[in-house]
Amino acid sequence: MSKYFSQKYQSLVPYTPGEQPKDAKYIKLNTNESPFEPSEKAADFAKNALSTLNLYSDPDCTRLREKMSEVLEVNEDNIVFTNGSDEALNFAFMAFCDDDTPAVFPDITYGFYKVFAAVNGVPFKEIPLSEDLSININDYIGINKTIFIANPNAPTGIALSLSQIEKIVSSNPENVVVIDEAYIDFSGLESAVKLTKKYNNLLVTGTFSKSRSAAGARLGFAVGSAALISDLNTIRYSTNPYNINSLTAAVGLGILNDEEYTRNNCRAIIANRKLTEESLKELGFELTSSSANFVFAKHRAISGESLYLKLKEKGVLVRHFSSERIKDYVRITIGTKEQMLVLIEKTKEILEEEK
Question: Which fold has domain 40-257?
Fold first, then answer.
């Protein structure tokens, strides 16, 4: 830290991304990326966009919004595109939280919420998950704060139903409710996007990083009433109106023109998740009920940290969190069937070594 660093940020604890190792080749099951390459249409559209890189990108993402409005069945003015869904979430903290309107979110959830609150000087409250690591919706009924909920939640993978989300939204008409749907496409549940047509205080965020195989492109979006989207655009135009570069916009458009490819990948990941859950349970693991592209598992014979380290030694990366309530767990991204079979085999070896 330099002597010039603003005092207001000196106590800031930044978000810690998952490992992106460069020292060795791993089966990478630690950052919830898709194991599948993007649609071929993404590459085709990006290639066609190369000739326009001498020009600024379209700040309105016109073609992207047109196509996404078809896919999500909402109006174009109900959508804004962002540099990953992280940017949409950060904009929401900036736009809808202040000293008079604190933020609230679960104590175990996406770690960036706390960082966004801190960097924006927003007071916040963390609500403990239930003993089974699920969200108790009664904790959020009429709470009169800006609510942030990941659904399915991370790192637990546990999801709320659409009716449960609606109860939270309808009970807080004077406050914005943000539903972070980074993993919704793996859940088999209806998206809360349909509720944005009914409730003006609901903002739903999404990403191309998971189900649409484009984590490296950094493309996210938010859906809500035209007024909420206008608020986010005020923030966006006050920070970086060209937040989506031309290649990323082209990649996104190509992906949206191949929704069947996305759906097939989701079906494969859901099948591989089921295989992984069944195999881990046979090995004595306890798992949460995950509706995401990962599982959250612990074993009585080995600590979460030890399992993470031993798997890393054997060439498989998973993620471990040191928070007290979840330190016994590891989060395992669902990859290809072949990758998951390697994970299971290496886990068996480790459990045998622990005897």
Answer: Aspartate Aminotransferase; domain 2 (3.40.640)
With 0-12 CB in 10 A as exposed, 13-18 as middle and 19+ as buried, what is 266? Answer: buried
Residue 229 CB coordination number (10 Å) = 21
pLDDT tens digits for 79-137?
A: 999 999 999 999 999 999 999 999 999 999 999 999 999 999 999 999 999 999 999 99
So where are the chain's domains? Answer: 15-36+260-354, 40-257
Whether pTM > 0.85 for this model: the answer is yes
Q: Which two tokens stand for residue 155?
A: 């790192």
Rounded to 10 deg, the angle between the 84-96 and 226-237 helix axes is: 100
CATH fold of the domain at 15-36+260-354: Aspartate Aminotransferase, domain 1 (3.90.1150)
Q: Given the structure tokens 């770690």, which residue do they identify?
A: 111
The mean pLDDT of 220-227, rounded to a whole number, is: 98
User: Under a CB-based contact definition with an 8 Å cutoff, are residues 179 and 195 in contact?
Assistant: no
Mean pLDDT along residues 35-52: 96
Q: Is the pLDDT of residue 24 over 70?
A: no
Cis bond before residue 155 (omega within 30° of 0): yes
| Cα–Cα distance measured from residue 27 to residue 31, given in angstroms and rounded to the nearest whole number | 11
Establish whether domains 15-36+260-354 and 40-257 are of one fold.
no
> Chain centroid to CA 215: how far?
11
Give me the chain's average pLDDT, please: 96
On whether the CB atoms of residues 292 and 154 are closer than 8 A, the answer is yes
pLDDT at 90: 98
CA distance 115 to 14: 6
